[in-house]
Design a protein that fits this description.
By secondary structure, the chain is an alpha/beta fold. Helix content is 40%, strand content 20%. The protein contains 7 helices and 8 strands, in the order H-H-E-H-E-H-E-E-H-E-E-H-E-E-H. The protein starts with a helix and ends in an 11-residue tail after the last helix.
Length: 228
């Protein structure tokens, strides 16, 4: 199963669901706005902790209908938002709702991206595996995260469904072991990793910061030796 096969599946299933439910949380496979906004809160928590009142650029991979942009706007967060999406119907909607936003149709895994953003986020994109074999899907997910990390100046934040669930699992969804993802991030990206498994949803949010991002926050001389 090639990367293009995976993208084709994503376009088809997300496109069909969007045509059914429209511009709603259900249209991007979320249950409701309350859980969607809790997800966004956790996704942004560590980034906002680092940036405070600073302005920064944020790129949203799998931006869907740009609901994260709406959340940021309502929260009055000062950032330069842009997104990547592969479902044509969603891209068209974003262009109609927010004509000034930069929403790109591209494959960040296969294309050699040269654009850089302070932070790159992803919410929900790693969840829906469908009939894709688990090992193939995990390879795809890790390649997505690697591409995101390369595109970021300071770090990334993403979420996934946890294997530590208390209900019956859905065979079309991908549940990941938080410890495995932590090891992968440590071994592949950076030692500056935050794992948030402390909210009601059956998922985990992970934030990974580059050395440059951490140095910006801890810039005093007392911390200099920890970045050598």
């Amino acid at each position: 199963m090639t990367n293009e096969d995976t993208l084709k599946f994503q376009r088809e299933i997300y496109g069909a669901n969007f045509r059914k439910h429209g511009d709603t949380p259900q249209g991007v496979f979320w249950n409701d706005e309350a859980t969607q906004y809790l997800r966004f809160e956790r996704l942004l928590a560590e980034i906002l902790r680092h940036e405070g009142a600073n302005s920064f650029s944020l790129h949203d991979v799998g931006c869907g209908t740009c609901a994260l942009f709406e959340y940021l706007s309502n929260a009055k967060v000062a950032c330069e938002y842009s997104g990547t999406e592969i479902v044509p119907e969603m891209i068209l909607l974003c262009q109609q709702k927010y004509p000034d936003l930069d929403v790109q149709n591209r494959d960040i895994v296969s294309e050699n991206e040269t654009q850089r953003y302070d932070y790159v986020t992803l919410s929900g994109v790693l969840n829906l595996r469908g009939a894709c074999p688990e090992d193939v899907w995990m390879t795809h997910c890790k390649r997505m995260l690697s591409s995101m990390f390369k595109m970021s100046r300071y770090g990334i934040s993403f979420n996934f469904l946890t294997s530590k669930i208390t209900v019956a699992s859905d065979p079309t969804l991908q549940y990941m072991d938080p410890a495995e993802i932590l090891r992968y991030c440590h071994d592949t990206f950076s030692r500056f990793v935050i794992v948030d498994h402390s909210y009601p949803l059956f998922e985990v949010t992970v934030s990974v910061f580059k050395k440059e991002g951490m140095q910006r926050r801890y810039s005093s001389t007392q911390f200099a030796k920890y970045f050598k």
